[in-house]
Amino acid sequence: MSRPLRLLAPEAIDDLLLYRLSRLLAQGGGPVIRLCEGRHGITRREWRLLSLLAQAPGQSPSALAQRAQLDRARTSKAISSLCEKQLILRTTRPGDRRRVVLHLSERGAEIVQALFPEVCAINQQLLAALSPEQVALLDGLLNTLQAQADALPLPADLPKADRHRGKGRPPGSP
C-alpha cells in the first residue's frame, strides 16, 4: 500500500528515493545484464564504457571514469578487460607517450551498434507504463534531481571507505 508523500517522510527503507531507484535499476536492468553477458560476453559496466566511448571517442581513462561516474580502479579493471577482449584500443598521445587515449575497436563498435537498439527496446518497455506527458515530466524531474545530487556536499568529517579485503567494516564488526 502506498502512502502519499512517503518520499518526504520515510518510515522504512522502502520509502527512500535512492533505495527505490536502486530496486528499479536492479529489476529493469536484469534484461540488460542478460543481453550484455549472455549475448555479447561483456558486463554492464563494460557496456557503459563502450557506449560512452562510442559517443565520445579518444577519451583518457580518467576522463572516461569521470563520465561513467566510476572510480578509477574499477574503470581501469574494466578497460583492461575490454582490451583483452579486443573491444577497445589504447593508443598513446602523440608527443606524450605517458598519456593514453581510448577508442573502440571495430568489434567494439559492432557490439555497441547491435546492443544499443536492444537496450533501447527495454527502455521503451519500461516507459510504456507512462503517457508521453508523464515521460516528459519524468525527464524534467530526473534532470532536477541530478542537478541537486551534483550539488550535494560530501561530509568532510567522514572517512572514505576502504572496500578492499573487508577493511570498510565498522570497528567491532566481524
Summarize this, please?
By secondary structure, the protein is mostly helical. It has 6 helices and 2 strands; from the N terminus they run ααααββαα. 57% of the residues lie in helices and 9% in strands.
Radius of gyration: 20 Å
Query: What is the overall silhouette?
Result: globular
Number of helices: 6
CATH homologous superfamily designation: Winged helix-like DNA-binding domain superfamily/Winged helix DNA-binding domain
Spatial order of the strands in the main sheet? 1-2
> What integer is the average pLDDT?
89
Number of domains: 1
**Biggest sheet statistics:** 2 strands, antiparallel
- The portion of residues assigned to helices is 55-70%
Q: End-to-end span in angstroms?
A: 37 Å
Briefly, what CATH class?
Mainly Alpha
Q: Spell the H/E element sequence.
A: HHHHEEHH
Strand content: 5-15%
CATH architecture: Orthogonal Bundle
Pfam families: MarR_2
Protein name: MarR family transcriptional regulator
Region (Disordered): 153-174
Domain HTH marR-type: 14-147
